[in-house]
Specification:
alpha/beta; 2 domains; seven-stranded mixed β-sheet; globular
Length: 351
């Protein structure tokens, strides 16, 4: 293959041909040496794509250490579905007001949340979300994690996934999830690691520093695709979803996952920038963006109408030495609107 095709090459599902990696290593090292002796820049030669992250990462780390850059791929972001570029989300009001957005109704949003963002659902108009996710989960277990769990434990793993899905957007209590799935806490922790490392779930860590110490230590867990979470939580339609008690958590999950994707799609590790806050007095801030030496507090509200109480906990950041950026409430309002001189309501379309 390498004799017949010159780089750059795209090699899909490379994990099924692991012997290729040793040849790629040789080719990359040869090119590096030749370019160094000629003082030329070194460009990417091979783009390797794979759907089995555990296998792929193991083979990559053993064979191509120091020679590879890794990009994690999620289901599509809303901007990708619209064919537009989206930078990392930062709540600078002056910059946000320059963006051209398409307003979205609550009904349209919950249809989007219920459907999810996997490409097949938008390419194949004849497949329903239920059929797609039924097949996806079956394939995920049989292809991606069959080697990581015992076959007899597949039912327990499905119970665990469902228990996590109904708690998306909540502070993670691994003991409660383990009890629901009828498994031990160590097994639940192992299963959680699988969900995180295969990209289905992300953990949002609590914000703390030398000044703020009395914070909750547990992370919040979010599914990266709301359609998958809705399927696992057994919601049959967007209408029932929107009217349910689950609506607030799945709305927050959608918002957080879109912001996380904006960072990951720009090659940034979201874990360095995104946090939440909750202390022993139960004061909570849904999201804190720590970037450019500023802290931006964010509340996430499903409705259009909120009062100033939704920003009352932003004051906990004032005791810090950090510069505090504009605080925002992401909600279903139609336009950016000031709450006071430092805080704004912002439509979620601006994410």
């Amino acid at each position: 293959m390498f004799e017949n095709y010159e780089p750059p090459l795209i090699i899909d599902e490379f994990q099924y041909a692991p012997n290729l990696l040793s040849y790629i290593k040789i080719k990359v090292d040869e090119a590096r040496f030749n370019n160094l002796t000629k003082s030329k820049n070194f460009d990417a030669m091979y783009y390797l794509t794979g759907s089995q992250s555990f296998v792929s990462m193991k083979d990559i780390s053993e064979s191509l250490a120091g020679r590879v850059g890794i990009i994690e791929m999620n289901s599509l972001s809303f901007s990708e579905l619209n064919g537009t570029y989206n930078d990392c989300f930062i709540p600078e009001i002056e910059e946000l007001t320059k963006k051209q957005i398409n307003k979205v109704t609550s009904k349209e949003l919950f249809n989007r949340i219920f459907k999810g963002n996997y490409p097949e659902l938008y390419v194949n108009k004849n497949i329903s979300p239920e059929k797609f996710y039924e097949s996806y989960v079956k394939t995920y277990i049989e292809r991606d994690i069959r080697d990581l769990i015992n076959i007899s434990d597949e039912v327990k793993f499905m119970k665990f996934m469902t228990s996590m899905a109904v708690r998306t957007g909540e502070e993670l209590n691994i003991t409660t999830v383990a009890n629901d799935a009828e498994i031990s806490v160590p097994t639940a922790s192992s299963y959680l690691s699988i969900l995180v490392n295969t990209g289905l779930v992300i953990l949002l860590e609590p914000f703390s520093n030398n000044v703020i110490r009395r914070t909750i230590k547990r992370p919040k867990a979010y599914f990266m695709d709301t359609g998958l979470a809705c399927y696992l939580a057994k919601y049959p339609s967007a209408e029932i979803l929107e009217a349910s008690s689950y609506a607030g958590h799945i709305f927050e999950t959608y918002v957080v996952s879109e912001i996380v994707k904006s960072y990951m799609n720009n090659g940034k590790d979201f874990k360095r920038y995104l946090f939440y806050y909750r202390d022993e007095k139960k004061r909570e801030i849904d999201l804190i963006i720590d970037i450019n030496q500023k802290l931006y507090p964010i509340e996430i509200k499903k409705g259009k109408n909120s009062n100033k109480d939704c920003i009352k906990n932003f004051d906990v950041l004032n005791k810090l030495n950090n510069e505090i950026g504009k605080g925002i409430v992401l909600c279903m309002i139609d336009n950016i609107f000031p709450i006071d001189r430092n805080n704004y309501y912002v439509p979620i379309s601006y994410i």
